[in-house]
Design brief:
The chain has 4 helices and 5 strands. The chain is α+β, with helices and mostly antiparallel strands. The protein has a 5-stranded antiparallel beta sheet, sandwiched between helices. Bound molecules: zinc ion (ZN).
């Protein structure tokens, strides 16, 4: 993980610049207080941006393909350290879901507690 300010040598797309320079929550421009590349490879960058004004954060994925540049972002209340931590955890797969389901079937008290 390292800061993207000053920017790296590859210019982001125009849409990417808009996302970085304008907070999607309070709509103020140039408000980034924290901007970090969480992960990157040849074609994609996962970037964390936190607004100085409202403290909202955006996790954005910028990727390049044969069709051009694209970006997708989500607003999050995680800080960049939490995102880096969860990124390292293993994925939840269908076996994990079934295991929880089977455990819940055996635990009648938990089901009663969860029922209203
Ligand atoms: Zn903001």
């Amino acid at each position: 993980m390292h800061d993207i300010i000053p920017p790296n040598n590859r210019p982001p797309s125009e849409e990417g610049l808009k996302m970085i320079s304008h907070c999607p929550v309070c709509h103020y421009s140039n408000t980034a207080i924290e901007a970090k590349i969480i992960e990157e490879n040849d074609n994609a960058h996962l970037i964390y941006i936190k607004c100085r004004r409202c403290q909202s954060a955006v996790l954005a994925l910028f990727s390049a393909s044969g069709f051009g540049l694209s970006s997708i972002g989500i607003i999050t209340d995680f800080d960049s350290q939490e995102i880096a931590k969860f990124k390292e955890l293993s994925k939840v797969d269908s076996d994990d879901v079934l295991l929880v389901y089977q455990h819940l079937l055996k635990d009648e008290q938990l089901i009663e507690t969860m029922s209203f």
